[in-house]
Amino acid sequence: MMDIKELNERIQQESVFINALTKEMQKVIVGQKDMLDRLMIALLADGHILLEGVPGLAKTLAIKSLSMAIKARFSRIQFTPDLLPADLIGTMIYSQKSEEFLVRKGPVFANFILADEINRAPAKVQSALLEAMQERQITIGDHSFALEEPFLVMATENPLEQEGTYPLPEAQVDRFMLKVIIGYPGREEEKRILRQNMQQEFPVTSPVVEPADIIKARKVVRDVYLDEKIENYITDIVFATRFPDQFKLPSLSPLISYGGSPRASINMALASKAYAFIRQRGYVIPEDVRAICHDVLRHRIGLTYEAEAENITTEDIINDILNKVEVP
Predict the structure, then answer these.
(1) Ordered alpha helix ranges (H), the chain
(2) What domains sit in the chain, N to C, each tagged with a CATH number?
(3) pLDDT digits over 232-277, tens only?
(4) What's the predicted TM-score (pTM) here?
């Protein structure tokens, strides 16, 4: 118990900057607490995040403000049907002066990438970005370049216009640690947004953290204590998406075409640790797992035609699993 107590005190000291970072972000972003929390979790757990929401919900503003608060390089890439992989990662150009080919790096060489409307670009471009996300390096010609840390991709999907879109294949969506659904702000929040945008000067975030602090914090997040009972809980939740019959959920079997991969278990454990770290706690509790479960699993469960015909969503399936799996 002494070790846990010491770890808890250490985590409380190491996570102090989270309050400063959140406060700085809230200067600019009104409401959207869940989105800011999930963005912080992805950052601390060294993952990537996929956001789905209608335009105008401060998705771009959130990641831009985060990069300014961390004093890191930000790059926004608007995905369009005519985008080429070279527009993203860069290309080789011929220099007449030196009479040789030189590498011109693309916008993906930054710390924070906003991949706006990722489902608008063809598969070749999507895979170029997803390779960078997974391998943390880019190959242009014969040269390979490691991407600068911290490296975070926030991709957005617009759920409204589906004409001319290229849905992300399941295997590629699985590369995202979290998929977050963003809703509209509340009435009071909307009034604050209105007032904020009517001011002479729009508030701007100031740098409060260095990129090196984030890299250091990521190592500390890995040290957050995860008890074996919590490991079993995470494994049970993921296994219930694959074999619902074994968890007394026979009604889900005809609704699920495939369940979460081992990446779901890994990401749930890491996201739970990051969530505990944000709460300035040195150990994971079941509530941490339940808090991030929907965001980790909603894009990792395949629905059958039967589920779609009955208007059953992945949210419903995750709720049933969380209600049934025994909490430690």
Answers:
(1) 2-14, 16-26, 33-44, 59-69, 85-89, 123-135, 170-173, 187-198, 211-222, 228-242, 262-278, 286-297, 305-309, 314-324
(2) 14-192 (3.40.50.300), 221-324 (1.10.8.80)
(3) 999 999 999 999 998 888 898 899 988 888 999 999 999 999 999 9
(4) 0.87
